[in-house]
Every structure is written in structure tokens, then in C-alpha cells.
Amino acid sequence: MTSVLIVEPVSSGNELVVRAAAMGWNTVVASFDAEDRTLTAATKDLASTLVQVDTNDVHAIVEAVSRSPVGAGLDGVVAGSEFHVEIAAQVAEKLGLPGLTTTDVALVRNKAKMREALQRAGVRSPRHREVASRAEAELACAALTFPVVVKPVESSSSIHVLKARDTAEAVRAYAAIEADGMIDLGRPLGDEVVIEEYVSGDEYSADGYVWRGEVRIAAVTRKLLGPEPTFVELGHITPAPLGPNDLGAIERYVGQVVRAVGLENSVFHCEMRLSANGPVLMEIAARLPGDQIVHLVADATGVSMADAALLMAVGANPETCLDEHAAFGGAAGIRFVDPGSITAYTRIEGWDDVPRYADVVEQKVLVPAGEQIPSTYEALRRVAYIRYRASDPDTALAVNERLGRELRPVAAYLS
User: Fold this and answer.
1) What does the alpha-carbon distance between residue 110 and residue 325 come to, in Å, rounded to a whole number?
2) Is 79 helix (H, G, I), strand (E, B) or coil?
3) For residues 354 and 361, what is the distance between their CA atoms, to the nearest angstrom?
4) Which helix H or strand E contains 169, and what residues bound it?
């Protein structure tokens, strides 16, 4: 029986556990299983073996797994979150198992190194500077053209990613990152930052995998963002409503990016903007996409990105990764409900009407009515979502825009 170690499954990483169990694999889950690394009840039920350990400590994971009866039978290791891609690679190397190498990971976890790799390869990328102090931020701004975007080098979920119109705004954005004591999945945010020139254009993500040098894109997704200066994702459409020329340009560009950062035998989630000069990378990650995109890809194409990730983790060809259910063959979308500036709500106006005009797959509340909405990080303030299917990408986009207009949280006032 195939046996795989999944390190800290959160968000879409839980789909790795679902799919490994569905394939009849021995599913070993390593997790801290506390605080914001607490496993879901469903993941605990599906896992064959749970190993509770500090998943930010490579040596602790290796020791704990080696002591466990399942340790000797492992066939591969895969990360269940963005922050554990590098950890999983290190564990795989120490246990002598297939998987990403630490060299591969270095260029996708750090946004500054990612940019440098593209520049060396001659791949289109915005000019940037890496900074680690306010003084360096000022110097970086003097060398770049405004507007710029300020972002932490190793964060996720668009946290602290901000558009700045001048040096003062950029330095304030850096100072906010420097002052933030945020701990995410047991890791501090840090104060290393990239300041890069702003790229205008619609935003897209390409999800796929590279196996023995061959790059395959399963789907390109249109990303619908909230108002700037932040870049909160409020909706996604898979496949993106694109003409053949733009789609071809994206596919060629993603291949260049994947090769520039040296990814091999891995899934990828590649985010870019389609500028007047062609696609421009925002970032690329060696993991499954978040925001339910892993489900949108499966709904629209039948391809299970989780299956692909698992197969490559054990050294197997991912070409057999088609989902067990038949491909829907149309389009899929998701719309998040943005509460705006309110701190709590009593109900979501239009919530009960959605099934009348959308083929709903899942309708879920993230922050219940009456509870305090998180006050920091806009990406964490989304209170609900609707995941749906449509006959084609244009229809899916129209549904998404209607959901954005009609779903309105009604403010409540907490005592």
C-alpha cells in the first residue's frame, strides 16, 4: 500500500488528505494540532495515522516519524500549506524520499529570489528591490517608478500587500509590516520586504504541474480583486474568459516562469497580470491553490490537482490524475462576501435568493451573523462564499458580478 506523509494540511491542503484516503493510501498526517494549526475533524477522521509534532521543526518531524511504526514504510512527503513547502522538502531529503528539493523551493518561497531568477532568465518581471529597513525602503523608492507594490517576501493571502503612490506611502507600508507581530501557522511575519513596480491589467492564475521537464496547465483562472490599494481576492472564474491569443500567451509565459525558478516534479499555482506587454508574474508557489480554486479546477475540467501533487510526492507520473467523477465541461466560480467596513452583521441581504440564478455547489458562512468580524487583514474579513457552476466562462463571470452586487451584509452593532 502506498504511504504518504502530509505535513500540516490547512485550507486546500485538506484536499490532499481527502484524495489520499479516496485512493486507498496509508495517509500519515503530521500536525502541531493546536492554535491556528488545529486539524479539522474531517481530516482527523480520514487520516490513517496522526503524528502530533511542531511542524515548523524539521528535526522534530523526522524524529517523530522515524519513531512511529509508519516511518519505515513511507513513500513520499507533501506539504499541506504554503509555509510548509520548504519543511516538507527538507523532511523528504532527510528521509531519502522523492519530492521537491530544497534548491527548488528556495526560489518559490522567497519573492525576492523569485524575481531575481526571472531576471537572470530574461523572463518579463517588474523591477524590484528587496529591503529590510525603512532607510532601505526609501532608497528603493528612489530607484523605482511609482506606483509601487510593497509585499512581505514570504507571506501569503495578500496580507500586507499594498499599492503605494509615493515614498511616504511605501515607507508607511513597510513600517506596518515591521511593526506587525503576526504569527501565522507558528511562523512570524518577518520584516524582509519586496518593493516592486506596479503592473496594471486583469489578474489570472494558472494551476498545473511540471513532471520531468514537461509543463502542463490544468486551468487558467480569472481573479476578481477588491478595490486598491489592497489586493483582496473576491472571486474566481475557472476557466478564465480568455481569447486564444491571450490564453496562448499565458501558457507560454507560465512555461518560462516554471523553468526560470527551476521547478521540477511539482504542482504549481502561478499568479500573473495580463499587461499591455503580455503576462507579468506576481508570484508562483509549489503547492495547491487556495480560495477553493482546487475545487473549481476539478468542477470545470475534471482534473484533481491534489491527485497530481500526491502522485509526484511518491515519484509517480501525474498523468493519471483525472478526478474520479466525470468532468463537468463548463465553468465554475466562487464569490466571497465582503463586509466592507462593518464590524458585525445581522444577515446577508440576497443570501436566500442565490439558488434562483446560480447553480450552487456550496454556500458557506465563514463568520456567523452577530460575531465580531476580524479587524485586521482584509483577506481574513470575508464573511461567506458561494461556489457555483455555469455553462461557460462568460456566464460564470456574469453570475459572479451579480453576486458581488446583490450580496450585502447588514450591519449589526455589538455592545
Assistant:
1) 36
2) strand
3) 11
4) helix 167-179
In this structure, are residues 88 and 72 in contact, taking their beta carbons and an 8 Å threshold? no
Q: Is 17 exposed, middle or buried (0-12, 13-18, 19+ CB in 10 A)?
A: buried
Write down the mean pLDDT value for the chain: 92
* Cβ contacts of 215 within 8 Å, gap of 6 or more: 208, 209, 254, 255, 258, 259
pLDDT digit string, tens, across residues 274-331: 999 999 999 999 999 999 999 999 999 989 999 999 999 999 999 876 544 445 579 9
Instruction: Show the DSSP H helices in 26-101 as ranges.
Output: 41-46, 58-67, 85-95
Residues 6+ apart with CB under 8 A from 395: 331
Q: In what order do the strands lie in the sheet with 359-365?
A: 278-285, 266-275, 202-211, 214-225, 233-238, 331-337, 384-390, 359-365
Report pLDDT digits (tens) over 32-78. 999 999 999 999 999 999 999 999 999 999 999 998 888 789 999 99
Segment holding 13, helix H or strand E: none
Pairwise CA distance, residues 97 & 74, whole Å: 8
- The kind and range of the H/E element at 119 are helix 111-121
157: left (phi over 0), alpha (psi -120 to 50) or beta: left
How many Cβ atoms from other residues are within 10 Å of residue 133's Cβ? 12
Q: Of 148-157, 179-188, 259-268, 293-302, which gets the smallest average pLDDT?
A: 179-188
* Residue 337 and residue 407 in contact, taking contact as beta carbons nearer than 8 Å: yes
Distance of CA 33 to the CA centre of its chain: 21
Element (H, E) at 122: none
CB atoms within 10 A of CB 195: 26
How many CA atoms within 13 Å lie on the side-chain side of 161? 22
Residue ranges in 281-392 assigned as alpha helix (H): 293-301, 305-313
3-class SS of residue 158: coil
C-alpha cell at 122: 530574461
- Which residue in 270, 252, 272 sits closest to 261, CA to CA? 270
- Look at residue 327 in the predicted model and tell me its pLDDT: 53
